[in-house]
């Protein structure tokens, strides 16, 4: 007889945030896509970037955004200076919101509430 057996559900979040490397990947995935996109401009040394990353991973799995086909990307500012210069990224994290290949607006700083509000606008 088995006693004291406990079952745990697997609540692991599947990461759907894709890292882009180089302008060619960025153009193909973001600028030439018809899907709306959030781009997380981050740096490995940035503590606020590290703190908000799991929240962005969680957003990338929410039905409200996956059903609207919103794509989630991240760009390392230290290895993609051409993209950083093109979009005037000067603080990390910065979140760029793209629709039909154009940037509609940015959220500067690790504010989950502001990112969520912007995603809600993007999904309309």
TrEMBL record:
Origin superkingdom: Eukaryota
Pfam families: Thioredoxin
Record's keyword terms, sorted: Disulfide bond, Electron transport, Redox-active center, Transport
Record keyword Disulfide bond present: yes
A GO MF label: protein-disulfide reductase activity
GO cellular component: cytoplasm
Annotated Thioredoxin domain residues: 1-124
Name listed for the protein in its UniProt record: Cytoplasmic thioredoxin isoenzyme of the thioredoxin system
Species of the source: Komagataella phaffii (strain GS115 / ATCC 20864)
């Amino acid at each position: 007889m088995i006693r004291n057996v406990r079952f745990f559900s697997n609540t692991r979040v599947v990461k759907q945030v894709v890292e882009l490397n180089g302008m060619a990947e960025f153009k193909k995935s973001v600028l030439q896509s018809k899907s709306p996109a959030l781009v997380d401009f981050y740096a490995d040394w940035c503590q606020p970037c590290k703190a908000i990353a799991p929240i962005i991973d969680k957003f990338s799995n929410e039905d409200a955004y996956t059903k609207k086909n919103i794509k989630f990307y991240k760009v390392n500012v230290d290895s993609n200076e051409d993209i950083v210069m093109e979009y005037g990224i000067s603080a990390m994290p910065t979140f760029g919101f793209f629709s039909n290949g154009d940037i509609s607006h940015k959220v500067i700083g690790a504010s989950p509430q502001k990112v969520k509000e912007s995603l809600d606008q993007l999904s309309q």
